[in-house]
Amino acid sequence: MDCSTKSICVIGLGYIGLPTASLLGTKGYQVTGVDVSKDIVDTINQGKIHIVEPDLDLLVKSAVNAGNLKASLEPCKADIFIIAVPTPFKENHVPDLSYVEHATRTIAPYVQKGNLVILESTSPVGTTDLVTDILQEYGHNTAQDIFVAHCPERVLPGRILIELVQNDRIVGGINNASTKVASRFYKEFVSGQVFETTAKTAELSKLTENSFRDVNIAFANELSLICDRENIDVWELISLANRHPRVNILQPGPGVGGHCIAVDPWFIIHRNVEQSKLIRAAREVNDAKPQWVISKVKEKAERFKHPVIACLGLAFKANVDDLRESPALAITKQLAEENIGEIIVCEPNIKAHKEFNLYSFDEAIERADILLVLVDHEPFKSLSAAKLSEKIVIDTRGIVK
Ligand SMILES: NC(=O)c1ccc[n+]([C@@H]2O[C@H](COP(=O)([O-])OP(=O)(O)OC[C@H]3O[C@@H](n4cnc5c(N)ncnc54)[C@H](O)[C@@H]3O)[C@@H](O)[C@H]2O)c1
Questions:
Q1: Is 151 a catalytic residue?
Q2: 18-45 pLDDT, tens per residue?
Q3: Domain 233-395: which topology?
Q4: Residue 319 and residue 353: Cα distance in Å, rounded?
């Protein structure tokens, strides 16, 4: 079967599903994108997008106009099903697999002999087996008739369309045949290498990558507390330490956000409580950092009656509009709730926010008594300490030179 005759059903049209669906649509596959949100489905069918990602608007428009991508509330029969729904955690950091379960149940009646079902959502070890069990419940013979595999997505928001094609991929099937079929599919559109393994190894590899980063950032965040006490510039310290040929410390920040690095380590911890002490400690160090930033702001605010505190950035990282699990947002909300001063917010990547009025960068700087840099968005990098001499600057990202 060449790709022009293949049909693909992508479940979940968010930051992963929509770029994947539209990329495949422009490569000649017949793609149906499924989402539970009617607004999202309608937006995409108009050739428009609901998220910010460079060039995604052009890709979606082109795939929709060519008739190769349509969005729907309902799945349909297809050769390949790709599940890209959220995998957050519930209370007490227990993985919430309900979206994966629900998505699998909605496609199960449409799956046919010879189909490939791929789980792309970041998943705790054993989730691909769960998908398989559900398909079996619906009478599918996953030992013979249906191929099931996990292929974790590792793209970086802001570079998704480039990385979807260029990144190496890890593909792990529930059996050898599934691994081979899934690997062949990715090789059709990925220019990076495709590595074959088992479903469980593929699941843990993605969790391991993000836990590695979390532990390394926790080390940097811990150094930032030590440096603050010792009155040492942590960014200078790290850049000097990184001159060692085998040292590569990441950067500290106001905490760790997003729905990957701050979430995925818990998927390991949940199943391996006794074995994951370092991974848990890192999570705790990173989760404690926002409170430390808030205490710094309070300390400075004491000098004023009712200071204007300009929070620069709400997103979870630089140059994106994604506010999920964002420490910058959590810090800003708490400062506002505790009425530490007048909180004004500048977030150039979103048009509006339901809780905060947004100010332009210039206006925020102009009005601020305390300037709190929370995200290293590109425009903020023009801040210069010399020009801010009358303001108090708390720079959690080390960008003010
Ligand atoms: N965003 C990233 O940068 C990134 C990177 C790597 C991996 N991931 C992983 O990819 C997965 C998806 O993440 P995302 O960022 O695309 O999430 P998202 O929230 O942007 O999108 C998920 C979409 O799925 C839809 N949805 C939920 N349940 C559904 C169902 N049963 N049927 C159909 N649609 C459903 C939602 O309405 C939403 O539009 C997660 O496991 C995430 O951890 C994300």
A1: no
A2: 999 999 999 999 999 999 999 999 999 9
A3: Rossmann fold (3.40.50)
A4: 17
